[in-house]
Structure formats: C-alpha cells, structure tokens
Amino acid sequence: MMSPHKRRLYPLLVLSLFVLFLFSYYHSSLPHTDITNIPSSSNLPQSRNNIVQKFTLTIKLLAFDRFDSISRCLHSLANADYVNDRVNLHVYIDHFKETNQSSILDEKLEESHRILDFVDKFVWKFGEKFVHFRTGNVGLQAQWLESWWPSSDDEFAFVVEDDLEVSPLYYKFLKGLIVNYYFNSSNYSPSIYGASLQRPRFVPGKHGNKIQLDTGTRLFLYQLVGTWGQLLFPKPWKEFRLWYNIHKAKGIKPVLQGMVTTGWYKRMGERIWTPWFIKFIHSRGYFNIYTNFQGERALSVSHRDAGVNYGKTAGPDSNLLDENSLDFSYLEMQPVTSLKWYDFCFREVLPGKVVRSSDELSSLLYSARKKYNTVILISLHRTSQEVTMNMLCHFEKLNIQNYIFLGPNSDFLNDIARRGYHVISTESLVNNIKGFRSKKFEGSDMLNEILAKAYIIKLCLQLELNSWVIDGNMLPISNAMFSDLHDTAYYFFATKDSDILFVKSSSVSAKIWDDSFIDKVVAKASSSTNKSSKDHGYLGNAITSSLEENNAKIKMVGELSFGEKVDVKNGNQTHVSEGTKYVIWSDEMALDFVSSRLDNLGMWELEDSSCKAVVCHQS
Ligand SMILES: *[C@@H]1O[C@H](CO)[C@@H](O)[C@H](O)[C@H]1NC(C)=O
Ligand SMILES: *[C@@H]1O[C@H](CO)[C@@H](O)[C@H](O)[C@H]1NC(C)=O
Ligand SMILES: *[C@@H]1O[C@H](CO)[C@@H](O)[C@H](O)[C@H]1NC(C)=O
Ligand SMILES: *[C@@H]1O[C@H](CO)[C@@H](O)[C@H](O)[C@H]1NC(C)=O
How far is the CA of 572 from the centre of ligand 4 (A)? Predict the structure, then answer.
C-alpha cells in the first residue's frame, strides 16, 4: 500500500522506528511490533490508531470448486472496514477429486481455472494476497490444519470457508476482541482460544439440541469451535497442531463419548477436522468467544452451498448484522470476569482462582451454601494428577458438584482452578490464618493440612454446612454416599484407620469445634509419633481422639464396613459387593494397578489423561 503522503511521513517514520527499536530493545519480551502498520493518513497524531497496531491478522480463505461462493465471499471481505490496518489475505484452493469421466473432467478443469483467474485478478488493497493452489484433493481437514502455523504470539488467523459472507463490521469487531481480550492483561484468560462470528446454534453434548440463551447475553464463552468465521489465537492453535501431530502419529482417534460430533467422526472420518479440535479443547478446558445478537443476526453467515458439507444448498443460516440493522453498540465489550462461560453441555462454568485466604474461603463457602447443604472437602496431598483427574470425571458422571479440593501449591492446582473447579491452597490458607491465631504455629506439611482441614470445618459449621472430609485415594460408588448420613443421630462420623470424616452441622458441633478444639487437634497431631506422610489415619486419629475427649457424640465404623479395598486379591473383580458405598486403595499401590482395577469396576474414566466422555445432566 503506497501512500501519497509518504515523503512527508518519512521523518516521522524514522523517528518511530527509532523509538520502536529502543522500545523493543528494552522490552524484548513484549509482543513484536509490526512496523508496516503505521497508518498512512495525515491525521496520524490525533487518530486513535496512532498506537501502532501490535498484531497482524491474516484471513485464511478455504476454497474449493464453487466459483459463485468464493466470489461472494471475497467481495464481502473486501467490502469490510479495515480502519487502515494491514490485513493479509491467504487463499487456499483445494483441487477437485480425481475423475476419469472426461465430460466432468473438462468442466472441473474449466471451473478451477476460472476460480484461479478470478482470485488472481481480485484486488486486495489491505495487505498481502497469497494464493495456494493444491495439486490434489486434500479435503477440509488438511485445508484447515495446514492453513496456519503461527510465527509469533501476536499473529492471528481468521478462517473462512468459501460459502461464508461476512459483515462489513466484522474486522472492527475482531480487532475489538483482540485488543480487549488478548492484549489487555486484566482481561486476558489463558483459557480462550479464539472467537467465532457465527451464530451459536447447538449443544454437542446434548445430541445437538438447540442452544437456549437469554437475550441479555451479547458476548459469552463456549467450548465449541465455530467453523463459519473462526478467529484463532496463536498459542492454543500451535498447541493444538502439536497435540494433533502426536495423536495422529500414535493412531489415537479423537473419540469423545457423549458428543454428537463423535458420530460425525465415525461417519466422515478424516474428511472433517472438528472432532480433533473438540477433543483437544475438551482435554485442555479451553473456550471460544461467541456473540448472541437478537433476531438471529451474526457478523458471519454461512450460505450452506452444496458441496463437502451440504448435499444441496441449504441457504443462509443467519441474518447478516450490518450498519443498517445495527441497533446497539456492538463494540462494547464487558470485562472477561462478567462474561458467562459454558461447557459442551451448555452448562455454566465458573472459572476460578485458587483460594488462598480466609476471606476467599468464606466467600466460596458462602456461595456453596446457596446451592448445597453439604460440602465435600477432598485432600489432594497424597494424590497423583491422574487419580485426581479421574475423580473429576467420575464426579461429573455421578453429577456430584459440591466438592472442594485442598492441595499443595502447584501448576496442576492452578490449572484445575482455571477449569472451574473449587480449589484451596493448603499452604497459602495456613499462612493467612496463622496471622490471626493466638497460638504460634510452625508446622510440617502434614500439620498444615490438619490445621487447614480443621479450620475449613469450623467455617462450614459457622455457615451451617455439613462437611465430608476425604482423601483422593477413594471413589464413591454413587452420590448416595454423601447424602445418606444426613438423618443420623450422630454429629460426627468417622472411619477407623482412614481419613473419612463427616461433620454434621448443628449448634452442638459448632460449639465443640471452636479455636481451642482446633488447637487441641493440631497439638495431638504434632505430638503423635505416627508422622509418616503416607499415613492416612493420621488426621482421623487426631480428630477422633480429640472429639472423644470432648465427649462428642461420634460414630466410628470399621473402614471396610461400607467400603471396599482395591487389592491384588480381587484384581479381576468387575463389580463391588452389595451395600458398598465406596472403593479405597492404598497409596503404595502402583497407578497402573489402580487404573486397571478401577477400569474393571467401570470407574476409570480417563483416556489420554482427560475424561473419555462428556456427561450432560438435566440442569
Ligand atoms: C475410473 O474408471 C474405472 C472403470 O470404470 C473405475 O473402476 C474407477 O473407480 C474410476 N476411477 C475414478 C477415480 O473414478
Ligand atoms: C482493560 O480492561 C479493563 C477491564 O475491563 C478496563 O477497565 C480497562 O480500561 C482496559 N484497559 C484498556 C487499556 O483498554
Ligand atoms: C500410631 O500408630 C499405631 C499403629 O499404627 C496406632 O496403634 C496408634 O494408635 C497411632 N497413634 C496415634 C496417636 O495416632
Ligand atoms: C486375573 O486375570 C488374569 C487373566 O485372565 C489371570 O492371569 C490372573 O491370575 C487373574 N488374577 C486373579 C487374582 O484372579
């Protein structure tokens, strides 16, 4: 793009380059700066665009053999407002499939040459135009996957298939999204992989049911990828390409039980790419930005022309939102924290942070109280990532939602919080509550864990919540395990030799469980000689003996009176005996053994370190 004002701008350009050089020299970790994007208009200093565009956007147009489609699509792209930004256009033209019917062959050759000629002559004045003409038919999967390998973290791709038509407003909207949700650090989320401009339509975990959304939601996050106008963020896309490479090479198929898209994969196989991407997104817990404009409007519509996806033309899926139909400010973008997030079941998810203080814990329990009367506190201190992930999948299957994890600080803990699970950092919580405890406390990890648990139980009692405290080395058979005890006459319930404890909310238990009781539990634990970190009975013993000293009404049961041990002896058993409420295993047991044993019982839900199924429940 040659500017008539080039000469006048020259000194300014030199100066800018110099400033940019200094800037990038001192901030080499900052996103690279695209110097080609200095706006060429003479109102440079006043313009909002004088913040040199930090990113590059490339349109990836995937075309095939439909002349009318590609022509409509290109015209709509060229008709959009690019606000003086440089935007590249890359066109990938797939080859027709081999044929030996000479009549069709001539027609096909003619059509493809007509398309090439049209694309060649098409003037793209907003940036570079590049055409990739295939020598053989590769299909949609390779067209999508090979269209992009990001070369930096501030390069974006907007992928359009040729039967799409975009709104003239589409680019301004995409730019708004990138500036707001990628470059504004207070709005950035590592969970977001891009944005779809198509109208959201179906729920893949619920047999493809139609989406039900209230009209007040204009922007939201949803796990599903959209193939009709999809903006891709560089990091997740690169991550996906590497993931795909590994899975493809090892022959691991993108099967995700419970998803309508898995049925598509079984029918269409490698002709489509979405099942691969969906499986990847599911394993990572990532989300896509979507719009919800009233009146079935969208910034990108598919004409659903006859071709690879449609046997015959189905017509536009939505109404194009343009300047004339604009009756709201479409560039208004809420902070990411006030957007709603939906999973593949279109169930709302609340991506969170690790709870690190007493205040954060109170507000977590306070919001739990609005929905549940019991919380399940699960210690991850002696639990591997795989077993934890399996527990998450198992709970999803059983529709158990009222649980909170307690664990050591780690990337894994942060990651499960990002995915929307409730997580408490033991160490941070203990450091925070130490500050307002009368008794000085310098504890081992084990004592930290005991103090944290005892403190959380106290807060639960204050909020009139029952609490279960369990370890990660067990799995309930059904969700009845956690509701059956509500009517018991006892206020406390514990298993001998293992860390399963139930504390019933009552004024009596709240009275017992005060600060001095917590001190007593901690003191008992620290004087104990059984300080092996592997000893699950450690906490249980400290609490139950303290309770007994306080003459609390406590029911003690043998570990195996309603649980069953996963053992070498019963390794091939495929079901538990009647009345069993949970299975439990020792930490010494190898992961392989635990997983195969649980698999025999139908309780190993992991495949390739993520849930093998999406299970949607009636909400
Ligand atoms: C070409 O014709 C032969 C014989 O009619 C047929 O068996 C073959 O499948 C055809 N090939 C293609 C690519 O259509
Ligand atoms: C970044 O996002 C926050 C939260 O939405 C907003 O208050 C702030 O103005 C944004 N900053 C910029 C530079 O746009
Ligand atoms: C320590 O362990 C022994 C044997 O495992 C047990 O009998 C004893 O009750 C434990 N002591 C405490 C204080 O937990
Ligand atoms: C479990 O099954 C395998 C294979 O059928 C067999 O070799 C093994 O002895 C069985 N183990 C037990 C404890 O029954």
Answer: 6
Looking at all shown ligands, the one closest to residue 600's CA atom is 4
Q: Report the first-to-last Cα separation within the chain, whole angstroms.
A: 54
Confirm or reject: Cβ of 571 under 6 Å from ligand 4.
yes
Name residues whose C-beta falls within 8 Å of residue 370's C-beta, 6 or more positions apart in sequence.
Answer: none
Intrachain domains 46-342 and 352-560 with the same fold: yes
Domain boundaries, the chain: 46-342, 352-560
What's the pLDDT tens digit per position in 306-352? 777 777 888 888 889 888 888 888 899 999 999 999 999 999 999 88
Ligand 1: distance of its center to the CA of 102 in Å?
Answer: 11
State residue 368's pLDDT score. Answer: 94
At residue 127, the 3 state secondary structure works out as coil
Residue type, 470: I
Q: Does domain 352-560 have CATH number 3.90.550?
A: yes
CA distances from 264 to 162, 286, 312 (A): 21, 21, 18
Q: Which residues line ligand 1 (CB under 6 A)?
A: 98-100
User: Which of 98, 99, 100 most suits a substitution to test ligand 1, by most atoms within 8 Å of the C-beta?
Assistant: 100
Ligand nearest to the CA of 593: 4
Q: If residue 297 lies in a helix (H) or strand (E), which one and from where to where?
A: strand 297-298
Q: What is the pTM of this model?
A: 0.86
Which class is domain 46-342? alpha beta
Any residues with Cβ below 6 Å from ligand 2, and which?
184, 186-187, 335
pLDDT above 80 (res 9): no
Distance 530 CA to ligand 3 centre (A): 6
